[in-house]
Design a protein that fits this description.
Collagenase (Catalytic Domain); binds zinc ion; 34% helix; alpha/beta; 6 helices; single chain; two-stranded antiparallel ribbon; six-stranded mixed sheet
């Protein structure tokens, strides 16, 4: 199966109730608000959070997770909002895409990357499932969570670097296959860790 473009940068006008910003200099912590619009499974979401935190560990960035309804009652200095459309739950029946779009997107206004993104859960689940075989199906929830974590990490790097550029290897490549989404590890390439770290430093 061909690698799927992982994300698109979408131009939007900002008329959103929750204001999300990443202030610079970037602190050691970032709050990630999760807004699920469809079905999701707790084991998959826990795995997504753990995979994302693990991949970004090398940058020193610590993530704090909130659901959308919790976040509206509090304020956070550094916040991104990720919306999950479709079903983030594993299911066996393949969905056919006539025109497969990206797995996720990050929004821009006036050519500026914003701290809002969207994950197409049905598409991520379908891509992860396409690479599963044998015993993988027994841990499908975990593998879907891992795939979601990698897609989410990719979008967070766009938001943190405020750049639409991509890396040459690892989780920040422009396109990722189902196999890459569920393989035991898919790190952030050293070049992209540097990109993040220098981004942090140059703003300080
Ligand atoms: Zn991308």
């Amino acid at each position: 199966m061909r690698p799927v473009l992982i994300c698109a940068i979408l131009t939007v006008s900002l008329a959103l109730a929750l204001v999300a910003t990443v202030n610079h200099p970037i602190p050691s912590g970032l709050t990630v608000v999760l807004d699920f619009r469809g079905a999701h499974s707790d084991p998959s979401i826990r795995e997504m959070e753990s995979e994302t935190s693990n991949i970004l560990k090398t940058t020193g960035l610590k993530l704090d997770w909130r659901l959308r309804n919790e976040a509206s009652r509090e304020t956070y200095p550094d916040l991104v909002v990720m919306t999950f459309k479709g079903s983030c739950k594993f299911d066996m029946s393949p969905r056919v895409y006539d025109e497969p779009g990206p797995l996720a997107s990050t929004k821009t206004t006036d050519h500026q990357i914003q701290s809002f993104g969207q994950v197409d859960c049905d598409h991520v689940v379908q891509s992860a499932r396409s690479a599963m075989w044998g015993g993988d199906f027994k841990k499908a929830d975990l593998l879907v969570g891992r795939a979601l974590g990698r897609v989410l990490t990719h979008e967070l790097v766009h938001m943190l670097t405020r750049s639409a550029d991509h890396g040459r290897e690892g989780v920040f490549e422009a396109a990722l296959s189902g196999k890459q989404l569920i393989s035991p590890t898919l790190p952030l390439a050293a070049m992209d860790v540097d990109r993040l770290m220098s981004g942090f430093e140059s703003e300080q």
